[in-house]
Every structure is written in C-alpha cells, then in structure tokens.
Write a structure and sequence with these properties.
Elements: E1 2-4, H1 7-19, E2 24-29, H2 35-47, E3 50-55, H3 65-70, H4 75-84, E4 89-91, H5 95-98, H6 118-122, H7 126-141, E5 145-149, H8 153-165, E6 171-175, H9 195-201, H10 203-216, H11 222-235, E7 239-247, E8 260-269, E9 272-281
Parallel strand pairs: 1-4, 2-3, 2-5, 3-4, 5-6
Antiparallel strand pairs: 7-8, 8-9
Helix pairs in contact: 7-8, 10-11
C-alpha cells in the first residue's frame, strides 16, 4: 500500500493508473477507522481496479470546536487496518495541503436543500464544510467512483446532488450501513459511549425498526408515531435531536400518498451524538 501526502504525488499515481486503463474508486474518511469504513473499502474493491482512501479530519464541518479537538486521531492504527484489506493508496494531506490559503478565506461550496432540515438544521455550517471538502477531494483524486456509507444518509443525498448540480464526472454509490450484533450502526463516535451506554445504544435501531413496522402495518399519523419514538428514546436515557419520517429521495416532509420513505434519528447518549436511519418502502 502506498501512502502519499501531496496532491502532486497523488495525481502522479492516478495518471499512471489511468494510462493502464484502471477504474479508480475513492473512499473519503476522517480516520479513526472501524469495520464500517473497511466495508466501504471492500465495496470499492468490488467495483474498481484500484482504491484510494483519504484520511483527513476536516475542521470546516465541525460546528463545535470542542468536538473537533476531541475527535480521535489514530493514524498508525488506521494505516494498519487499510493494509489489512489491501487498500492500494492512502492519501493523508495535512491542513496546509487542503487549505493552503487558510480556511477563513477559502471558497465554500453550498448545496441548497439540506441545511434547513434534520442534521443541517441542528448543525449550522456542517454540510457546507462537507460539500467543500468533498468537492476538493473529488478534484484532487479524480476517481471514477466514490463510496459513501448510508449511515450518513443526509450527507449521501447532499453529495449526490452536488455531483448532479455541478456535472462532476464521478459516480457516487451508497453502501449499506454496517452494524454490530445489537444493531447499533458502526461509528467512530461509538467509542465515546461507556459500557452501560453501549448496552442501551441498541434501542436506537430497535426504535427505527418499530417505527418501520408500524408504517408497514398501515399507520399514517406520522407526527404521533414520531413523538412516540422520541418518548421511547427519552425513557431509555437518550436526549433526542429528532426522529423523522421523510421522503427518501430528498428528505422533504411526507404525506399519506408517499411510499418511498426514510426514517431518520439523531440522539445524544452521554457524550456521543448518534445518528441512524432505515429505508421503508410502502409500495
């Protein structure tokens, strides 16, 4: 596995692969890797000849500086994990490579339609930071395919819209959420959970599944169902940001005629802000 830290070195290797007519896939990460990340790499390997993974903790997408400071940096362990799944190249730029003129004066990419709902509403500026850094990575790497996890479903939709709106020559593919045995979605933030909190955390997925079952049984009082789910999480010790039933394609509010739904949740459990979602198709 190669490791490069500059754009020039990255592009030199990409050009060499292009000259060999290789299909290139890209998996962007913020490090602190777990099996969920590795599943994205393995998905990329199924679809491409060469796989590039980036590791960069992006300050622009943090609305809380304390959260940014606390975010785990585990580069040596991350490199070993990527080697274990035969990743072809890892790109590890520093802040000066990503923002050579500083972040304050940096151009920002804004994707409309996501900053006024769900995580966009609760984390001001977060998705602008995501759209900006992903745009930069797409231009740096120039891959054919990019793989993103469905756990961050709102982010996945945002990036697909970004690619469509700007006619970027890359295909964005979502990969199924990777869960542990309890159903808890794998996340770097899970390590903030204490042992007792981790035992409770499976209630998040259970709540989503119960809500999905209620919808499939024909219940259509969306506000009541959402509020019941919020109350269940509170009783389990969570501090919910939201539980929402939305249209799967754009996360707009639903009505009783909609059939392609997505159920999404964000809630604090101790210090950890956990998010999850599941599909619900009523057709």
């Amino acid at each position: 596995m190669q490791r490069v830290e500059t754009v020039n070195a990255l592009r030199a290797q990409v050009k060499a692969w292009r000259d060999q007519n290789k299909i290139i896939a890209f998996v962007p990460t913020m490090g602190n890797l777990h099996q969920g990340h590795l599943s994205l790499v393995q998905k990329a390997q199924e679809l491409a000849d060469k796989v590039i993974v980036s590791i960069f903790v992006n300050p622009l997408q943090f609305d809380d500086q304390a959260d940014l400071s606390a975010y785990p940096r585990t580069m040596d362990a991350d490199i070993k994990q990527l080697m274990s799944v035969a990743t072809d190249l890892v790109f590890t730029p520093n802040i000066d490579v990503m923002y050579p003129q500083g972040m304050e004066a940096h151009s920002t990419v804004v994707v409309p339609g996501m900053d006024d709902k769900l995580c966009g509403k609760n984390r001001p500026g977060h998705f602008d930071g995501v759209a900006t850094v992903v745009s930069k990575f797409f231009n740096m790497v120039q891959a054919d395919i990019a793989i993103f996890g469905e756990k961050d479903y709102q982010q996945l939709l945002l990036i697909k819209k970004l690619v469509l709106d700007l006619n970027l020559p890359i295909e964005v593919i979502g990969s199924e959420t990777f869960r542990d045995e309890s159903g808890l979605a794998m996340s770097s933030r899970n390590q903030y959970l204490t042992d007792s909190e981790r035992k409770k955390a499976s209630v998040l997925y259970q709540t989503l599944m119960e809500l999905k079952n209620q919808l499939e049984q024909g219940e259509q009082d969306f506000k009541r169902l959402q509020q019941q789910a919020v109350e269940k999480l509170k009783l389990a010790g969570f501090s919910p940001d939201y539980v929402e039933i939305r249209r799967a394609g754009n996360l707009d509010l639903v009505n009783t005629e909609d059939t392609d739904l997505r159920i999404l949740v964000a809630a604090y459990l101790g210090k950890a802000r956990l998010i999850d979602n599941i599909a619900c198709n009523l057709a």
